[in-house]
Amino acid sequence: MTVVLFFSICFVLLGNGFAQKRPAEPNFLSESSSLIELPKKEQSEAHEDEGSLHIFSTNTLLAPGDLRTKLGQLRDAIYVVPLGNPKTGVINMAAPSLTGDHRLVNSYLEGYYPYFVDNPMIPLYVLSKRKQYQLDADQYRGREEVWQTSREAFSFSRGDCEDHALILADWLIGIGEDARVVLGDYRGGGHAWVVLFKGGKEFLLEATKKDGVGRNRAYPLASLHNEYHPQIMFNRSEFWENSGSKYTTRYSGRSWRLQSRYHRESLDSSPNSI
Questions:
Q1: Distance (Å, whole) CA 96 – CA 74
Q2: Closest residue by Cα to residue 99 from 162, 138, 135, 143
Q3: pLDDT one-digit tens code per residue, 221-242
Q4: pLDDT tens-place string over residues 44-77
Q5: CA dist., res. 31 & res. 234, Å (int)
Q6: Which of 16, 173, 197, 264 could be 178's S-S partner, Cβ–Cβ 3.0 to 4.6 Å?
Q7: pLDDT, tens only, 180-207
Q8: In whole angstroms, what is the distance from residue 160 CA to residue 239 CA?
Q9: Are the beta carbons of 36 and 81 closer than 8 angstroms?
Q10: Contact 82/33 with Cβ under 8 angstroms?
Q11: Residue by residue, what is the 3-state secondary structure of the chain?
């Protein structure tokens, strides 16, 4: 099977803006990108602590064993890999872990948050002080793409954009907020950030932001940030694809197509401080 490999998807936040540490990379999902098609499977007996994937466009369920087999075939892929086909679109994505195994992007949100807070501004503030930005290639001896789980992302002192976004989103979800990780592009290069739905409004959270973050500083409205171009979005279980314009500043509505739901037999959502 031919696998088209994706690029590493981050920028570094310096001061009040982004500064690239290498030349601009192609868009996250370009027209030349190939999709890896998952086989259609009926539901079978689930294995404990493993996940199944319900694909809505074909109304099929990929059982845990079949999903594990398909992801195992991506072991040699060094970048994020889209799953689907031209007819269904991107129904989910797989990303390489610390061990090199590919996991569905939903599974990196482990249901982890370090401790409860009642102020949704605090998680971003804590991460701005606790976690340092570093490209994967620098941290992992030349590996261009490595994803930390939300638990790892809080434990490790360094990480890139998706690592910051994963722990921020999972922490917010853990305290009862509707937060999602967004993948797309920012000023011509791939990036990951978080969108928070609260009080009927959509807020854009730059997870790698280090300066100007306060415990009580309100999050900015997503509608004010047209330099962020969202392409896909996910939480612990659902995966959405933007079927409309990538230049949208809206993260809800008919253009956002719910593509799949990831189901785990068990999900530890209780706090576990490190």
A1: 9
A2: 143
A3: 999 999 999 999 999 999 999 9
A4: 333 334 799 999 999 999 999 999 999 999 988 9
A5: 21
A6: 197
A7: 999 999 998 999 999 999 999 999 999 9
A8: 21
A9: yes
A10: yes
A11: CCCCCCCCCCCEEECCEEECCCCCCCCCCCCCCCCECCCCCCCCCCCCCCEEEEECCCCEEECHHHHHHHHHCCCCCCCCEEEEECCCEEEEEEEECCCCCEEEHHHHCCCCCCCCCCCCCHHHHHHHHHCEECCHHHHCCCCCCCCCCHHHHHHCCEECHHHHHHHHHHHHHHCCCEEEEEEEEECCEEEEEEEEEECCEEEEECCCCCCCCCCCCCCCEHHHCCCEEEEEEECCCEEEEECCCCCCCCCCCCCEEEEEEEEECCCCCCCCCC
- Global confidence as pTM: 0.84
Band of the pLDDT at 22, cuts 50, 70, 90? Answer: very low
Residue 243's identity, in one-letter code, is S
% of the chain beyond a pLDDT of 90: 74
Residues 6 or more apart from 23 whose CB is under 8 A from it?
none
Q: Is the pLDDT of residue 93 over 90?
A: yes
Q: Tell me the angle at which helices 122-130 and 161-174 cross, rounded to the nearest 10 degrees.
A: 140
Mean pLDDT over each residue of the chain, to the nearest integer:
84
Question: Rounded distance, CA 54 to CA 238, Å?
Answer: 10
